[in-house]
Amino acid sequence: MIILGIESSCDDSGIAILEDGKNLLHNKIYSQTDIHASFGGIVPEVAARQHVSSLGNLIQEIKDLNMLNLIQGVAVTKGPGLAGSLLVGINYAKSLAYALNVPVRGINHLTGHIHAAWIENQEEIEFPVIALLVSGGHSELVLMKSHKEKILLGQTRDDAAGEVFDKVARFMDLEYPGGPVIDKRSQLSKSKTRTLPVTNIKDTLDYSFSGLKTSTIKYISKIIEQNGQLDDNLINDICYNFQDAVVEQLVIKLNMAVEEYEPKSIIVCGGVAANSHLRTRIKNESTIPVIIPSPKLCTDNGAMIAAAAFYENSFSKESELDLDVFPSLKMTD
Questions:
Q1: I want to staple 16 with a disulfide (CB 3.0 to 4.6 A). Which of 91, 179, 251, 302 is the partner?
Q2: pTM here?
Q3: What digits encode the pLDDT tens for the residues 193-209?
């Protein structure tokens, strides 16, 4: 089946055409990073307005390539995400499906991230799977016994991992988004030592990053008070110190889940899965196959939504022309 995937849950507009869950015929993403950088974060109203024009341009590109006639179904993110951004994507999807006389289905953004792993690595993944989803808004551990059977094992109790990357970077006046710049700066650190605390909530697989965020900001403030300012070497060392503490917590809980549930595969997905330190740690330490999508499939994209629709057999159900948005949708909903 050839599925058009539309993603607009936050600030990235994504359009992709995917055949049988693995052959990526088209994949384009319009990023709003430069637009929101001056604000230090995403402005929901600005994001929604930008989706209107960017999704229109992306769909026009598919039309110009004479690929619209290939589409047999339209899959679109229904949540979680920013309500305004989701509405734009869903209205485009329903209109397009109606015009092409093909079914439309709403897809959970979170399961989309997980199913991105199957696009390039479907032959390597064996159930049961433990998926670590880490992004700007989510940090979750999920046990998958099949494409449709998912059990939430743990999640962040406060800030998500990607969120604290952005906040710590902003406090040091680094570029937005914070994750890529902290990753890059941490590789330049000469000391490569961790002194910041690693949160490990006992008797649970839940995460908590707010304490680390506060500790890091206090640590930076103390250094500024002592030195007057942050030079490049100090920033590099802080980036490594902070990033290593985040990764350590993620790895601790993942290892606990693997030991308890004995999966046959591990998937690491979401925007933070592009972090080089996290990818290296998990791959080097795991005794079972670790599948991590390529960086272009870790960030929000339409291909992952089409993949989730295919592998969850979403089009076996009726079309959803009355589809609505669900900004607070959970992993297991």
A1: 302
A2: 0.94
A3: 999 999 999 999 999 99
